[in-house]
Write a structure and sequence with these properties.
mainly alpha; 0% strand; elongated
Length: 175
């Protein structure tokens, strides 16, 4: 067009157009959504080391240390239910449920922490069910009666044979 003067855009405009978040580089159809994707030349160990949830971060070491709570809960499986704390195990159950969900929402998503919290919740559910079952049996009077009856049967069996026929009991003991 005659009379039209084309001017070169100012440096500010050129920078703004180049830095546009909607402008895609030519030749790259699929881009990662990561802010700083690792270079493709890194080894597996380097990617793990530099990961947002890698060995250098609290996102790795917090779940590792939290496994101690899960192991402590599992070791309580061998304790009698009357010696367990209902409030403590309810807290473990709630902690496991709440933090499992939270770990899957936060960025970076921490699957290791979600797994440990899931198992913490499972341990809490098992312990709470044991405690409630024991409390229900005490309330109904079934557990103490059964234990007392078993103990009395054992005493009768052990002493009954000896007191009724001591000679036969001594022959059975020698054989």
């Amino acid at each position: 067009m005659p009379g039209c003067i084309l001017r070169r855009p100012s440096p500010f405009i050129r920078h703004f157009v180049r830095a546009s978040p909607f402008r895609r580089p030519i030749g790259r159809k699929h881009q990662s959504t990561e802010v700083n994707p690792p270079p493709p030349s890194q080894s597996t160990f380097q990617r793990l080391w530099n990961s947002p949830v890698g060995f250098k971060t609290v996102h790795f070491w917090a779940p590792v240390m939290k496994w101690a709570l899960v192991l402590a809960g599992v070791s309580d499986f061998y304790r009698p239910a009357e010696k367990l704390s209902l409030t403590q195990n309810l807290a473990l159950t709630a902690t496991g449920a709440i933090w499992t969900r939270w770990c899957l929402i936060i960025k970076p998503r921490n699957v290791l922490l979600a797994a440990v919290n899931f198992f913490l919740g499972c341990v809490g559910v098992v312990q709470v069910s044991r405690i409630l079952t024991w409390q229900q049996s005490v309330k109904n009077g079934t557990a103490p009666e059964v234990i007392e009856q078993d103990a009395m049967d054992a005493v009768r069996t052990a002493t009954g044979g000896i007191l009724e026929n001591p000679e036969a009991a001594s022959k059975n003991a020698i054989q």
